[in-house]
Structures are given as structure tokens and as C-alpha cells.
Write a structure and sequence with these properties.
The chain is α+β, with helices and mostly antiparallel strands and 121 residues long. The protein contains two helices and three strands; from the N terminus they run H-H-E-E-E. Strands 1-2-3 form a three-stranded antiparallel β-sheet, with helices on one face. Helix 1 crosses helix 2.
């Protein structure tokens, strides 16, 4: 009794490799986007740690944001794009932005980010 061989054909292997390469390429394109978000989140968290509970003014928070954005070389958004609003109990610092990165031909990824902290008085 002869058994049929089971396994992947050459065409199946080529399709699998192409699919895995596409996923790997997407990961390569999205990694810098998330690393930039980590920089922005680090700046916002640093401002929170510096001013939480100190009764800081809006202008001092803004100047600290600008200084930290410059030091960390954040190029995705600028310090003026970060909203610093007065709320009950302190100031809310919100970095909300969308990052668009090209993928293949006319296909792009758009990733939305939002980092908010409440700096208490």
C-alpha cells in the first residue's frame, strides 16, 4: 500500500515566505513610529514627574515641554502641539497626534496616539 507524500509544495512555500516578508516589512515600517511615541510619552511623563503637586503654572509646563522635546529630539510633533489645559485640580497635558508612514506604493499606515496626564496642584 503506497502512501501519498504530504508536505508543502514549492508554490505554497513561496506564498508563505512572501506573506512572512510582508509582515516583517510592516513591522520594520511601524517600529520607528512606536519608538517616536515612546519619546513623546517619556517627555509627557517627565513633565508630570517634575511638576506634579508643585502648583506649577501653564507657562512653566510649556517651557519644560519645549526643553524636553528639544533634548530628546522629538520630531513627530512640536511642543506647541501639546495641549496644556487648566482643569479642576491642576493642568491636563495631552499629546494627541496621528503619524502616517508609507508602506508599499500608495498604501500607508496611519497610527493614532494619545498620551494624557493630570498634573495636580
Amino acid at each position: 500500500m503506497r502512501r501519498r507524500q504530504a508536505g508543502m509544495t514549492t508554490l505554497g512555500l513561496v506564498i508563505l515566505v512572501a506573506f512572512l516578508a510582508l509582515i516583517a516589512f510592516a513591522g520594520l515600517r511601524l517600529t520607528p513610529v512606536y519608538l517616536n511615541y515612546m519619546k513623546v510619552a517619556g517627555v509627557v511623563n517627565g513633565v508630570y514627574e517634575e511638576f506634579d503637586g508643585t502648583g506649577a503654572s501653564r507657562s512653566s509646563i510649556r517651557s519644560s515641554l519645549a526643553r524636553r522635546f528639544d533634548i530628546d529630539s522629538v520630531g513627530v510633533i512640536e511642543a506647541k502641539d501639546v495641549a496644556v489645559t487648566k482643569v479642576d485640580g491642576g493642568h491636563e497635558v495631552a499629546a494627541v497626534y496621528a503619524h502616517k508612514t508609507p508602506f508599499i506604493a500608495n498604501v500607508s499606515f496611519v497610527v493614532d496616539f494619545e498620551k494624557r496626564v493630570l498634573i495636580r496642584r
